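Supplementary Note 3. Input sequence used for the single-chain structure prediction.
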Amino acid sequence: MPERLSVFYGPSVTVAAAMVGLSLATAVRAQVSGGSPDAYPSKPVRVIVGLAPGGGTDILARLFAQKLTSTLGRPFVVDNRPGAGGTVAYASVAKSPADGYTLLAVASGYSITPAFYKNLSYDSIADFAPISLVAEAPILLMVHPSLPVRSTRELLALAKSKAGALDAASAGVGTSNHLALELFNNLAGVRIVHIPYKGTGPALVDFMAGQVQMMFGNIVSSLPHVKAGRARVLAVTSAKRSAVVPDVPTVAESGVPTYVTTTWHGWLAPAGTPPPIVNKLSAELARAARSPDLLDQLAADGAEPVGSTPVQFNRHLVTEIARWSNLVKNAGLNLGHD
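The predicted structure, written as discrete structure tokens, is reproduced below.
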């Protein structure tokens, strides 16, 4: 009888034991990853921004964080951690638990950083899980109203007649508006001095006060100051004119034919974040980008919504990092970072 029981009940007992083990393993994984995707988020989520408050990255991060707070029912709290061109924040998030409760909002400066910093403590691709490319926007070439130029050609003439006499503010070394300046210097054959700040907010303050004479500014954070007369925009850096400022020419049509660059915004998570959570966040960000109220807000500031998949954003990151690394190398830029 014991043998017959063993033969008859053995497989069932084995299957039952395996199912119990599988359930326990699933429960452990769910506990480690912060719960199932359906339950995520079950607590507040931090969204790290590697630049000071007031810049375009910060503004867009807060817009999307507010939408996720509304749709997912838990606070998405923006936490600004400026320093070293954003690398302090990037390194911090790379080492954070991969549970979906620490995210990173980045702009195009993120893809520029590897070209300038040779010994980063993180890998820009391997240490992060791309979530979504959320928006893109042109950059504005602006001068302080006190500078006696009203076009890019006039600016070029002044810069060539007084080499090194003009200076330009940026959000920090290795940021998108810094590289926009370096690209301008390289392609136009001028030497405008770079003045770095810890974020777009502080840079704009000194620029509008006339402490620095020009700036390549993110359209999201800079356009209100242009409209208020505190800055004069000469051109946009995109390949075509912006619908927000259609009368403003591109840099390319204003004397620097090959000049084109834009800024973009996206969200990342630490590598190893469960794909269902990443996919859920990606879908919600894409939905937020299509929402009428956010569409209106983005359009008013000159940004265009994207809302990509994780795979699409990963492809974008790989392409951008290679592009800027090649440009920096070919242009011979050396910022002295190890």
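The chain has eleven helices and ten strands. The CA atoms of residues 137 and 143 lie 19 Å apart.
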